[in-house]
């Protein structure tokens, strides 16, 4: 989630600052939605949908545009049409940067592995629903240390699940969203209800001092 490219793209989905701003992804000194697993994924899906619409439902061109930029792909299509006006244009006929070509090829390979793991000699793990993550709106400021205490979840795990937070707290304006394991949700809600008034005062003091 904290991956950065030389061109400034960040997070699991490698979203640039410009793209994040275009899609309203929050980014400030406390929080960067490009690092947030859910926020970034939702943004990426919206971007892919927009690109797919632009390229008339062609998913290979869509994936290429996600990597290389829609303008570059459109220019490559125009150039190919100029060179071979009678040819049916597709991803494989375009002259594109090697990185963009390989990006699409890698995704096709990954898709094949996930669809037919046995054919590739791979055994995928069985997922446990109780260990799935739930996106929760806490509705108030907090610190990750306090959430760790309320959920009995190691702070290192909590930070790994919620990489969007740049500091120990989301700050005074939020967002106050958390990814927590399914099996910790009820414990967290009960603990939060017991300590809500005291917790708000404590967190307000921490944010003020920070």
Question: Could you characterize what this model shows?
Answer:
The chain is elongated, with a radius of gyration of 22 Å. The chain has 210 residues and is mainly α. Helix content is 50%, strand content 5%. It starts with 16 loop residues before the first helix and ends with a helix. The longest helix has 25 residues, at 185-209. A two-stranded antiparallel sheet has the order 1-2. It contains 8 helices and 2 strands; from the N terminus they run αααααβααβα. It has helices at residues 17-22, 37-54, 59-68, 70-83, 98-115, 144-151, 155-161, 185-209; strands at residues 133-137, 177-181. Helix 2 packs across helix 3 (59-68), helix 3 (59-68) packs across helix 4 and helix 3 packs across helix 5.
**How large is the radius of gyration?**
22 Å
Q: Structural class, judged by helices and strands? A: mainly alpha
Strand fraction equals under 5%
Q: Mean pLDDT, rounded to whole units?
A: 88
End-to-end gap: 25 Å
Number of strands: 2
Percentage of residues assigned to helices: 40-55%
- With strands numbered from the N-terminus, the spatial order across the biggest sheet is 1-2
Poorly predicted regions = 201-210
Dominant shape = elongated
Number of alpha- plus pi-helical segments:
8
Largest β sheet strand count, sense and barrel closure: 2 strands, antiparallel
Spell the H/E element sequence: HHHHHEHHEH
SSE topology:
Blueprint: H1 17-22, H2 37-54, H3 59-68, H4 70-83, H5 98-115, E1 133-137, H6 144-151, H7 155-161, E2 177-181, H8 185-209
Antiparallel strand pairs: 1-2
């Amino acid at each position: 989630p904290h991956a950065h490219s030389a061109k400034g793209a960040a997070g699991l989905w490698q979203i640039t600052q410009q793209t994040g701003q275009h899609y309203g992804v929050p980014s400030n000194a406390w929080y960067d939605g490009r690092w947030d697993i859910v926020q970034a994924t939702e943004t990426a899906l919206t971007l892919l949908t927009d690109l797919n619409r632009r390229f008339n439902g062609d998913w290979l061109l869509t994936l290429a545009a996600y990597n290389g930029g829609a303008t570059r792909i459109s220019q490559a299509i125009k150039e190919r049409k100029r060179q071979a006006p009678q040819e049916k244009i597709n991803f494989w006929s375009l002259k594109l940067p090697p990185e963009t070509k390989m990006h699409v090829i890698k995704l096709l390979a990954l898709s094949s592995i996930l669809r037919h793991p046995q054919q590739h000699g791979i055994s995928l793990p069985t997922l446990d629903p109780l260990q799935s993550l739930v996106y929760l709106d806490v509705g108030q400021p907090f610190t990750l240390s306090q959430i760790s205490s309320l959920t009995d979840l190691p702070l290192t795990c909590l930070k790994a699940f919620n990489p969007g937070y740049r500091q120990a707290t989301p700050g005074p304006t939020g967002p106050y969203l958390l990814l927590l394991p399914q099996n910790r949700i009820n414990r967290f809600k009960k603990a939060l209800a017991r300590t809500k008034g005291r917790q708000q005062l404590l967190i307000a003091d921490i944010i003020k001092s920070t």
